[in-house]
Amino acid sequence: MYTVTLIPGDGIGPEITSVVVEIFEHLKAPISWEVVDAGETVIDKYGTPLPDYVIDSIKRNKVALKGPITTPIGKGFRSVNVTLREKLNLYANLRPIKSLAGLNTKYNNVDLVVVRENTEGLYKGIEYKIDNAACAVRVITKNASEKIAQFAFKYVKENNRKKVTAVHKANILKITDGLFLDCTKKAANEYPEIEYEEKIVDNMSMQLVLNPEKYDVIVAPNLYGDILSDLAAGLIGGLGLAPGANIGEDVAIFEAVHGSAPDIANKGIANPIALLRSSIMLLDYLKLNELAKKLEDAISETVKYIDCLTPDLGGKGNTESMKNKIISFLD
């Protein structure tokens, strides 16, 4: 039995995490949840959206599933996600982007993975004002760049993939992105059997829209990886389908790529697939591969039934109807 930290989050978080819990019960997954609260609901009591007991639970259990948590825009507390990544050194953000057969989307053959550096770049949040100017400091280190490059190439090798594409803006940011490219080239030399290429980030954005099938594993600094993974999610039907994992040396947190969507919270129409696909990554991480495949197959069958799908997928259903349809393919 594995003990996994469960953070329901806020907005639609509690609704979609409860779907995962119920579906895991039907799977008979050997997982015991340790539920801890974070986000807007705990600020009044603890003075922070991320109390120490959340960090302690994750450190103790080594694995967590996290619902989305609201990040104030332009003011207030720092992002809970960024803080977790920094405190737990979750240096790799893994975001698989794979088409679901049966969904009516413009692309049906997308199968790529964004490997995003997760701890530095502009997300260090180093900002200051000088008179009428506002400045942000972008930090790229050799250590972090080498680690994420190694992670990308090892992922390709361990998952029978073929190519790594390093994304950069070194034509303009010659020192910072130049350092990042030096590290990806060094890793590429250590894996001569793996195809390696480099793309400038603006060109990469266009290429993903024109020819997503040409790409396999994309490794990128923090900001580029964040933007490109959202763009790629649009190719397969939206953020409601995009899973993610934050992985460190001995700790991993799994979460959907999308936000907390407070505008649809408590309306019963939240799409649970992104978090369910994240939970599939969690099962694989724990080597519960048969259960992961069973859930993946159930989701693939479910999306063929448009009437049960949530409105963001063009359906007339709701969270409950999607959950029930998935469970029907597990029984």
UniProtKB/TrEMBL annotation:
GO terms in the biological process aspect are: isocitrate metabolic process; tricarboxylic acid cycle
Keyword list (alphabetical) reads: Oxidoreductase
Q: Gene3D superfamilies annotated for this entry? A: Isopropylmalate Dehydrogenase
InterPro entries from the UniProt entry:
IsoCit/isopropylmalate_DH_CS, IsoPropMal-DH-like_dom
User: Could you name the domain of life of the organism this protein comes from?
Assistant: Bacteria
Q: Which Pfam families does the record match to this protein?
A: Iso_dh (PF00180)
Q: Say which enzyme class the record assigns.
A: oxidoreductase
Residue span(s) of domain Isopropylmalate dehydrogenase-like: 3-326
Tell me its EC number(s), please.
1.1.1.41
* Sample GO molecular function, one term: isocitrate dehydrogenase (NAD+) activity
Q: Which family does it belong to?
A: Belongs to the isocitrate and isopropylmalate dehydrogenases family.
- The identity of this protein, by name, is Isocitrate dehydrogenase
Species for this entry: Petrotoga olearia DSM 13574
